[in-house]
Amino acid sequence: MKHVIRIILLTVFLVVTASIWDGLFSTTLVKLLLNVDFIWPNSTIVLDFTYHLLTTTVIYVIFISLPARYQKIYIVSLFFITLFLYFILSTIAIQSFPITIWALSGWIVIHLLFMMLLATYRKTYTHKK
Predict the structure, then answer these.
(1) Residue 87 belongs to some domain of the structure
(2) Is residue 128 part of a domain?
(3) Which residues are CB-contacts of 42 (< 8 A; sequence separation ≥ 6)?
(4) Is there a contact between 63 and 71 (Cβ–Cβ < 8 Å)?
(5) Model confidence over 91-101: pLDDT tens digits?
(6) In this predicted model, what pLDDT tens digit does every residue of 51-92 receive, in sequence order?
(7) Domains contained in the chain, number
(8) Can you give the pLDDT at residue 15?
(9) Is residue 129 part of a domain?
(10) For this UniProt entry, which segments traverse the membrane (predicted)?
C-alpha cells in the first residue's frame, strides 16, 4: 500500500509543480504533461491522469527494483528521455503546444524535482528493507 501512495504522490507532485510553473511563467506544462490526444483524441482529464499514473508506476517499479549500482545510470537515462519527450510530445500532440524556453525550462525543472523525490523514496525503501 505504501508504494501505491508514493506513486500517487509522485504523480500529483508532478502535476502540482507543473501547475505552479504554469502560473508563474504562463506556460502550458500541465496540459502537455497530461495530454494523450495522440492516443485517445477524445480523452478526459481522468483518462489523461490515469495514463500518467501508469507511466509513473512503471518508472517507480523499475527504479526501486534496480540494484543500487544501476540507479544513477537509470536517472541519467530518465532525464534524457524526459528531455526528448518534451519535443516529441509537443510535436505529435493534436493540440498545439508552443516550444518556448520557459516551457522547456519548466519541463526540465519539474522532472528533476520528480527524480529527486523518486530517489528519496528509493533511499527509504532500501533502508527499511
Answers:
(1) yes
(2) no
(3) none
(4) yes
(5) 998 888 888 99
(6) 999 999 999 998 888 887 888 888 889 899 999 999 999 999
(7) 1
(8) 95
(9) no
(10) 7-29, 49-66, 73-93, 99-121
Please indicate, yes or no, if residue 82 is contained in any of the structural domains.
yes
Residue 111 C-alpha cell reads as 522532472
CB 94 within 8 A of CB 31: no
**What residues make up the domain containing 6?**
2-123
CA distance 72 to 52: 23
68: cell is: 543500487
Return the DSSP state at 66: S
The DSSP string of 73-120 is HHHHHHHHHHHHHHHHHHHH-SS-----HHHHHHHHHHHHHHHHHHHH
Instruction: Let me know how long the chain is.
Output: 129
| pTM for the predicted model, two decimal places | 0.86
Across the chain, mean pLDDT equals 89
